[in-house]
Design brief:
The protein has 494 residues and is mostly helical. The protein is 58% helix and 7% strand. Helix 4 packs parallel to helix 14, helix 6 packs antiparallel against helix 7 and helix 8 runs antiparallel to helix 10.
Length: 494
């Protein structure tokens, strides 16, 4: 048994090795399961590695049905041999061709939905990132901010140094609001898409989905104010939380996830399902977009107010256009999650598949031997059941299944970019408002590259859940160090 290691850069900037196995024996694939994470990354050039992989393939879904149909075909062949009688004449050609066409067409449509979901997620994150970047650049601020932005360079302080005034403080508060609401917008997308189908279509979610939902709510608690969180939480639709305040939620979730690194999943005492109000509620990302629009209006500089530090009114239209694009991407993702394959088509595919599998004994010709009457039907069964399972798996690319899209990595990358934007804007006080919190194992294991930290507002952080990362552990590269502080020290030293 040989071990082969591939090295990747994880989302926190550290080198990690992901080990795969050269499957030189039949038992090798069992060890491979230990290294599987959500949204599996694999090398398409290693045939043995792909063939002997179990988790994330069609085998968990088709194994029982495939074994039953194989045993059914073997029993029919044995009876035909014993009685030297054929149950029917050859007629599988037309039915098999029709069945294959329908299933492959469905699989192609499901893959198109999967790719639409992937593109929608990319568009959503890109639009949020662009909104955050432009919001930080467009605000002029006071003497220090405007000098740093317009007379220096990207992340490089100007030759002269100015000290903060009240306009700089207002611009800092604005930047902090934009960053925390933008990160909350990315978290809200994951929260909504993970429960949209079961919760908002069927009215219940599993206890595993509720556990993941509570963690996302804990994340929002560490990014939003109490008033904002109460509005957002009321939009989720959990009936048990209608009258609970944000302060009570903070205490409850802090107890639930206390010492989160020692937890692995929901308590056994939880019920199997939780009810969700699937009425026409305002969705969580829509509520957060409202907060962002409010922030932009409050900090707009137009001819009728006295806010010279704010955003010029001519730029606000472009920002609102980005907010409209964010909502459009969200609606597309919501449709992908909640729009099933048309029932007549799904019914026809399943019905014809069952008829074909039950009619296998009528295709037996005992004179052709055991291989043609047992092995070939078994392979055909595996192919048809596998294509049907793939189509079902790909129809909804959002959630926590092993083949669903990895949203955690996208959110974390945007968090890192948000901190760098604050650094490049010279707002080190706004930068210091945020901190990095360690991530428990049950969350990091859902990311294809192990997640190590998440962004929180320091004043809202819950250290009893997971401690904050010490600044010395971040090890920022020297080319990212704050040049403005160096210039200030030179200026202070004469």
């Amino acid at each position: 048994l040989h071990v082969k290691c591939h090295f990747f850069w994880d989302v926190s900037g550290n080198a990690e090795s992901i080990c795969f196995l050269d499957c030189c024996s039949v038992s090798s694939w069992r060890v491979l399961l230990l290294f599987v994470a959500q949204m599996i990354l694999y090398s398409g050039g290693d045939w043995l590695e792909l063939i002997f992989t179990y988790t994330g393939t069609v085998w968990p879904n088709v194994r029982g049905k495939w074994l039953a149909v194989t045993a059914y075909a073997v029993a029919a062949y044995v009876i035909a041999v014993k009685t030297e009688t054929n149950f029917g004449q050859e007629g599988r050609t037309i039915l098999f061709s029709t069945m294959s066409f329908l299933l492959i067409f469905r699989a192609n449509a499901a893959y198109a939905r999967y790719w639409l979901g992937r593109c929608t997620l990319s568009d959503y994150i890109s639009e949020v990132r662009e909104l955050m970047l432009l919001c930080i650049i467009y605000v002029r601020g006071g003497q220090e901010s405007s000098t740093f932005l317009f007379h220096g360079g990207p992340g490089i302080a100007p030759a002269s140094t100015f000290y903060r005034d009240e306009y700089d403080e207002k611009a800092r508060n604005y930047r902090v609001d934009v960053v925390r609401l933008s990160v909350a917008l990315a978290v809200a997308f994951k929260l909504h898409t993970s429960m949209a189908l079961d919760g908002y279509c069927f009215g219940t979610i599993s206890k595993e989905a509720k556990w993941s939902l509570d963690w996302d709510r804990l994340r929002l608690l560490q990014l939003l104010t109490e008033e904002e969180f109460e509005v957002v939480n009321s939009c989720i639709g959990l009936d048990e939380d209608v009258t609970v305040t944000a302060a009570e939620h903070r205490k409850r979730l802090a107890r639930q996830f206390k010492h989160a690194n020692k937890l692995s999943g929901p308590p056994e005492s939880w019920p199997d399902e939780f009810e969700v109000n699937y009425g026409q509620l305002v969705r969580v990302p829509v509520a957060i977009v409202w907060f962002l629009r409010e922030v932009l209006f409050r900090n707009m500089n137009d001819p009728f107010n006295s806010q010279p530090w704010g955003i010029k009114d001519r730029f606000v239209g472009a920002l609102f256009s980005l907010l409209g694009g964010i909502l459009h991407s969200f609606e597309t993702a919501h449709l992908v999650c909640t729009t099933p394959v048309p029932l007549p088509y799904a019914n026809l595919c399943k019905t014809l598949l069952v008829i074909f599998l039950l009619s296998l004994p009528f295709y037996v010709d005992w004179e052709l031997g055991w291989f043609a009457n047992t092995a070939v039907p078994s392979i055909i069964t595996l192919a048809l059941l596998g294509v049907d399972a793939i189509a079902t798996e790909l129809e909804n690319p959002f959630g926590d299944d092993v083949n669903d899209l990895d949203q955690l990595e996208q959110v974390h990358i945007m968090e890192c970019e948000a901190m760098e934007l604050l650094r490049q804007a010279g707002d080190m006080k706004g930068f210091a408002t945020f901190g990095w919190q360690h991530v428990p194992h049950f969350v990091s294991e859902k990311c294809c590259r192990r997640l190590k930290r998440q962004l929180v507002v320091k004043e809202l952080a819950l250290p009893e859940v997971m401690p904050l990362v010490q600044e010395a552990e971040l090890n920022a590269p020297t080319w990212l160090m704050d040049r403005k502080e160096e210039n200030r020290q030179k200026y202070a030293n004469g």
